[in-house]
Specification:
The complex is a heterodimer. Chain A has helices at about 15-20, 55-70, 100-120; strands at about 5, 25-35, 40, 40-50, 75-80, 85, 90-100, 120-125, 130-135. By secondary structure, chain A is an alpha+beta fold. Chain A has one domain (about 5-150): Aldehyde Oxidoreductase, domain 3 (Alpha-Beta Complex), CATH 3.90.1170. Chain A is elongated and about 50 Å long. Chain B is α+β, with helices and mostly antiparallel strands. Chain B has one domain: Beta-grasp domain (Ubiquitin-like (UB roll), Roll). Chain B has helices at about 10-15, 30-40, and strands spanning about 5-10, 20-25, 50-55, 60, 70-75. The longest helix of chain B has 12 residues, at about 30-40. The termini of chain B are far apart. The chains are: A alpha+beta, B alpha+beta. The interface between A and B is medium-sized, with 40 and 27 residues.
Chain lengths: ~160, ~80
């Protein structure tokens, strides 16, 4: 199985978890990101995720490989949905197994945090009032800051 | 020197451009120059400081030299997870 993948079908947490089973693993931690009905004070009806697939899978793979090396994991996996999602749907699943629990907890946190800032995936929110907007793109255009060149680093780390 | 570039758009840039991709014959030397030209053409709201440039599926800096046939993507602020 690939370490990182985009998919347009419903994520099956039980099935994904089994992919991480290993005799050397003493602990398994997973994180599920769900679509929430509210963002920045607005009521959200549904979401659309769009990805630059080739780059997303490349960058996602780098993140999971980094996590495996950094935390000495037995295995790790991250799947991210694309397409239209409703409230409560699972948008992202991260799982890590390791000989001891600490590394699995830390690795899950690391992977989801890095995915959120490094992987070219975009989220369009559709609100109950009929309006819609790209998260991090619409309002930030109004207050772009002068030290924005932080975003231009070529090492793949957008924000710290 | 004139070159042909292939540009792909995603998310807000795709909507503002009204297209997913375009071929462009131009003299832009760098992603910085290219974005300036495209921003004028499509009235993009995002400033270069909010974007990252990708050429042939690698992140590059804004002064990277573009070559004929390059595939260029400007990455708007991401929001996965």
């Amino acid at each position: 199985m690939k370490y990182f993948a985009l998919t347009d079908v419903t994520l099956d947490a039980e099935k994904l978890k089994h992919a991480l089973r290993d005799p050397a693993a003493g602990g398994f931690v997973s994180f599920e990101g769900w679509v929430r009905n509210e963002n920045e004070g607005r009521t959200v009806r549904r979401l659309e995720y769009e990805a630059y697939a080739a780059m997303a899978e490349k960058e996602g793979l780098r993140i999971v490989v980094e996590a495996i090396e950094r935390f000495g994991l037995t295995a790790a996996l991250c799947l991210h949905r694309v397409g239209s999602l409703g409230i409560g749907d699972m948008a992202v699943w991260v799982g890590a197994s390791s000989p001891h629990r600490g590394e699995a907890f830390e690795a899950c946190r690391f992977i989801i945090d890095q995915v959120k800032v490094r992987v070219p995936i975009w989220k369009k929110e559709h609100y109950v009032d009929g309006d819609s907007g790209w998260v991090n793109c619409e309002r930030c255009a109004e207050h772009a800051h002068p030290h924005a060149h932080d975003h231009l680093s070529t090492d793949g780390n957008q924000h710290r | 020197m004139m070159k042909t570039l292939h540009i792909q758009y995603f998310a807000l840039l795709r909507e503002q451009a009204g297209m997913s991709e375009q071929q462009l014959h131009c003299e832009a030397l760098t992603p910085a120059q290219l974005y300036e030209q495209l921003r004028a053409e499509h009235a993009f709201s995002l400033s270069p400081g909010q974007l990252r440039a990708v050429v042939n599926e690698e992140f590059v800096n804004w002064e990277h030299i573009l070559n004929d046939g390059d595939r260029v993507v400007f990455i708007p602020p991401v929001a996965g997870g």
